[in-house]
């Protein structure tokens, strides 16, 4: 037996290579190996480094629906490992070979200096003569995720799942394994705890991430899958081992398989894995730092400009010059820096299934849309337009002139979803068409901001010029990302917001490119608070765009609640602000000014915290989240209709210290507090219902 041991950025890794050259991942954690070492030789064979299954091959293990035991994965022989360094940190690559098919598999781990997170992916290269068909390949596999501590598995292990749907994004729920139907005493379970997505909305049911918690040892393991389409992860048991497997699409779940001819290669979807001990805040802090490392460098994530968008609880996709001009005036008066004309600017009437040309409507804008964009610039704001470049409506004038291979196909027919065709970005002509649209918006209309929406889910994929439906979708996803990269190279100061019916594609394939992401289309500001409170668990806070839309009829508390929704994230201002009373309008202006002068400069340097020790949900009467850095903590607190005016927040990391608490927004409003230095408990009391506050904490 040969041991391979690595220690990097607070992570401890142990692998074992047998005399038969079988390689096993024995330990991967932010803690050194403990006493609970696996010494059963049969169990040790389950401690894989990678899982791989080809069509026509046997499955060597009892599996049921689980993605384990495939061949040639369990035949792979370890060859070597290579360590290198790049701008991020160390990269370790493990080379394995299947002697029968001559396929080489390289498992890559990218480390990031100072962060307890790795990015992992798998490379498959066919050095053989015969074609092989990949049905499943893991991007990361770890088979001892429950060994810390002494309690039985079902007494200590919890999993946090980020349930998501349209207008209900990021609603985390915490489960025991038994609550999800998984029991600890099965020799070889056929039960999975799993997350999966099939289709082009990557976060339509679950965000592509989750968090595993060991309550006994306060250990956390968080992961995210970085694909703007289909993905899969699973947790299950093999005798006394609980394993985690992360991957992109596979054949059984997502209708994906990939053929490799001689010397062809395939790269799996990248995934990230973070480790920490303490609170859930700690592991999300590691993941937040990682997300900032992999993100495209851009000024927007430093400047955090304030955006007005005319859609939400405002024009709702019915813009005209007459309607826009007074909104532009009031947006400028409130201090907004970008003004985005949302959906409808390209059509006189019902536009849903007629989109595709992206030419301004002269019925809506009699003197041309440039009159409005010029007016926006005259008010010292940067103009923006809504766009949905990946689709073409079935009634679009372009459809009859468009080659049919521009569209996704299934079974010989173009795929239609909600009156739209899906453009296939694998096609160079589609990319050239999209290039021309962006060029016209930027160079002709003077647009500096694009709200890039995507309002369909195209399903498993396309079988036109693809090995499988999932292969067509994955290659389209990757082609779209490459096209997007080229736009940012060509127009480095252009801001392109990622939006998919709100937050239906909250993934770090897209978020590593886009500087901000629409978090929801939720129209009820009281529900938006819960979505906002959780948003920084799904993305960095400086990328989380949250609607704030004071209503035409409402009280002062309604305005404060609405504005607080966005104040620690990215402001997407909307609403009929010109119709507010002077007093309520003053609160909007104060919030934006406070954001610009006191808050936004600290957001890109801060990490999210959750002082209620839980994520928010719609049923709760109190929500809270904050942003902390080495100098200060900002805390948003929302109160709906609780029985008590008091709430206790946990800042135990500050125990034994004295603090200064000040009200950031709305200035001069009522609140009381008491600080328990011995325990780090902060009790805050505020009067009223459906109200909110933003506080600042400084340690003396």
Describe the protein.
There is one protein chain. The chain is an alpha+beta fold and 700 residues long. The protein has 13 helices and 41 strands. The strands form 9 sheets. Strands 5, 6, 7, 8, 11, 12, 14, 15, 19 and 20 form a 10-stranded antiparallel β-sheet that branches. Helix 12 runs parallel beside helix 13 (582-599). The longest helix is centred in the C-terminal third of the chain and has 22 residues, at 469-490. It is globular.
Q: How large is the radius of gyration?
A: 26 Å
- In angstroms, what separates the terminal alpha carbons? 55 Å
Low-confidence stretches: none
Number of strands: 41
Shape: globular
Strand content: 25-35%
Mean pLDDT: 96
Reported for the largest beta sheet, the result is: 10 strands, antiparallel
- Which class of secondary structure composition applies to the elements? alpha+beta
The amount of helix comes to: 10-25%
**DSSP summary: helix tally:** 13
């Amino acid at each position: 037996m040969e041991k391979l041991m690595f220690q990097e950025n607070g992570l401890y890794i142990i692998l074992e290579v047998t005399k038969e050259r079988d390689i096993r991942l024995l330990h991967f954690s932010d803690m050194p190996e403990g006493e609970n070492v696996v010494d059963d030789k049969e169990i040790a064979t389950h401690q894989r480094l990678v899982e791989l299954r080809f069509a026509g091959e046997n499955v060597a293990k009892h599996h049921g629906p689980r993605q384990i035991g495939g061949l040639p994965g369990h035949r792979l022989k370890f060859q070597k490992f290579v360590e290198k360094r790049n701008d991020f940190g160390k990269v370790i690559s493990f080379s394995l070979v299947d002697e029968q098919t001559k396929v080489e598999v390289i498992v890559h781990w990218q480390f990031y200096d100072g962060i307890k997170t790795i990015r992992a992916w798998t490379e498959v290269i066919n050095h053989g003569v015969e074609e092989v068909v990949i049905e499943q390949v893991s991007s990361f596999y770890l088979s001892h995720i429950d060994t810390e501590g002494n309690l039985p598995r079902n007494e200590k292990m919890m999993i946090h799942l980020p349930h998501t749907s349209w207008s209900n994004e990021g609603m985390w729920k915490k489960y025991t394994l038994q609550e999800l139907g998984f029991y600890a005493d099965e020799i070889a379970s056929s039960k999975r705890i799993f997350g999966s997505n099939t289709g082009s909305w990557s976060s339509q049911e679950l965000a592509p991430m989750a968090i595993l918690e060991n309550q006994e040892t306060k250990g956390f393991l968080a992961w995210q899958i970085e694909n703007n389409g289909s993905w899969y992860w699973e947790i299950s048991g093999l005798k006394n081992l609980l394993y985690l497997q992360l991957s992109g699409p596979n054949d059984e779940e997502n209708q994906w398989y990939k053929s490799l001819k001689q010397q062809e290669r395939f790269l799996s979807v990248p995934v990230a894995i973070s480790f920490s001990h303490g609170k859930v805040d700690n592991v999300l802090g590691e993941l937040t730092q990682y997300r900032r490392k992999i993100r495209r460098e851009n000024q927007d994530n430093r400047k955090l400009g304030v955006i007005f968008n005319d859609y939400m609880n405002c024009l709702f996709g019915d813009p005209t010059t007459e309607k826009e001009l007074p909104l532009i005036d009031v947006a400028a008066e409130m201090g907004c820096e970008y003004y985005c004309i949302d959906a409808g600017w390209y059509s006189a009437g019902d536009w849903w299934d007629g989109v595709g040309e992206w030419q301004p409507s002269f019925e809506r804008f009699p003197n041309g849309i440039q009159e409005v964009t010029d007016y926006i610039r005259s008010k010292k704001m940067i103009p923006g337009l809504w766009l949905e470049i990946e689709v073409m409506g079935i009634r679009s004038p372009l459809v009859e002139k468009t080659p049919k291979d521009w569209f996704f196909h299934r079974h010989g027919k173009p795929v239609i979803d909600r009156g739209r065709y899906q453009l296939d970005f694998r096609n160079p002509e589609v990319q050239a068409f999209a290039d021309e649209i962006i060029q016209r918006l930027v160079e002709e209309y003077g647009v500096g901001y694009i709200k890039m929406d995507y309002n369909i889910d195209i399903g498993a994929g396309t079988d036109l010029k693809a090995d499988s439906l999932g292969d067509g979708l994955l290659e389209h996803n990757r082609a779209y990302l490459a096209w997007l990269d080229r736009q940012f190279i060509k127009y480095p100061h252009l801001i392109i917001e990622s939006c998919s019916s709100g937050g239906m594609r909250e993934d770090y394939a897209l978020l590593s490119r886009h500087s901000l992401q629409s978090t929801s289309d939720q129209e009820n500001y009281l529900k938006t608070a819960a979505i906002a409170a959780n948003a920084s668990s799904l993305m960095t806070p400086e990328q989380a765009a949250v609607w704030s839309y004071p209503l035409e009829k409402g009280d002062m508390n309604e305005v404060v609640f609405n504005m607080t929704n966005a104040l620690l994230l990215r402001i997407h201002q909307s609403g009929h602000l010109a119709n507010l009373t002077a007093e309520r309008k003053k609160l909007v202006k104060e919030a934006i000014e406070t954001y610009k002068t006191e808050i936004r400069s600290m957001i890109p340097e801060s990490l999210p915290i959750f002082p209620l020790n839980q994520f928010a949900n719609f049923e709760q009467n109190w929500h809270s989240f904050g942003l902390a850095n080495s100098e200060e903590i900002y805390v948003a607190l929302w109160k709906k209709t609780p029985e008590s005016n008091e709430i206790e927040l946990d800042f135990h990391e500050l125990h034994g210290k004295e603090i200064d608490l000040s009200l950031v927004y709305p200035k001069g409003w009522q609140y009381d507090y008491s600080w328990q230095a011995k325990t780090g408990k902060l009790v805050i009391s505020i009067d009223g219902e459906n109200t909110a506050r933003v506080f600042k904490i400084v340690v003396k």
